[in-house]
């Protein structure tokens, strides 16, 4: 194995790139490898924040850049050319994430003086302290109340476990003295810089692609990427005409702020995919606790999510889960048991349909109380956040925490308002409700009232 390693090292000694400007080395290395990089230019906005600009007009459909297979890292490549990875495979060690194969390869190449990958490694960000995995107790405290804090803790645990297990299982990993900090740094760099790409028809691969990984995210990104079998490499393509000098962006995906924050270290106020994650749990003092647990196959809590828009299934699901927890009448529960015959497994958020106006009232009240207490858990108010965002001395990493948690709080607040609104109208007559819903802003709520509440009202009014 060591022979193969030294052979690779000799091979990589052929050309060295020693310009004091690491970006020049990167471009020259890519050009020497027959990459097509002439239409883009690197701009260093700050040491940790670089971007690409179009160095010429680029027509819609044209490739913006091309990197051949020899100059990007694929899973196949890193499994083959990294000693630790080969050992892992021999030992049948299954990493908790395939990112570990990339991390091991980067650690190896980072250690080598004359690595073929040196021009790439030299331009990877040096400082990743803005990623939540690196936060200290004081920075964690800023996330208090946010469901993201739990995810951060969990991520740290996963990273630590992998590092400790690797050290234990692969003696070379320990011998090279790779530190936990470097392991985590390369793990984060792998997460935040990899491209999921379809190579074969159904074969999705992660790739680390030099230079392409300088492009930042925007919701209105105008590039797409892929693998070209004919050219045997990775391309970025313009989906519209791009003017000379324009900054290049692509859309990293329709992800929530929490996802961006965890994987890329940023959040945005304009992300349309924001969400607030929260748990709805059964009350252990509930008389029906045991019956409910039995019905759901042993569950007590369910993860739910609310989004910006109340025009969304997530609202109905959250409501239904709370409704399940709120059922207190045997009749309602029996009706639920009847409904359940139609499903293989009972999911409170999908299957707990409205039963009575009384139950709906209790449900909106309980959801409201839950959200009010969630809101009170946060370290700061929306107003504090707004003030800090307006203050230019607020550090960059902190802005992202504020944007993340502020959006979570805004979602909670909006949903509290919906609960309040429902509680204020639920005692009205069916006619009054119909009138109110005609101009109601939240379509999902209006649809819910029209399809569920009004029929219940009509039935009750008919009986009366
Ligand atoms: C693939 S890299 C893009 C290039 C990066 N700016 C650099 O200098 O190497 C992804 C990283 O860029 C930054 N980034 C990308 N899009 C961003 C955005 N819309 N807002 C803030 N930071 C962003 C984040 O630090 C993220 O982890």
Automatic annotation (TrEMBL):
Pfam families from the UniProt entry: Rubis-subs-bind, SET
Entry keyword annotation includes Signal: yes
Classification via InterPro entries: Rubisco_LSMT_subst-bd, SET_dom, SETD3_SETD6_MTase
GO molecular function: protein-lysine N-methyltransferase activity
Domain SET residues, every copy: 33-253
Lineage, highest ranks first: Eukaryota, Sar, Alveolata, Ciliophora, Intramacronucleata
CDD domains, sorted: SET_LSMT
Keywords of the record: Signal
Protein name: SET domain-containing protein
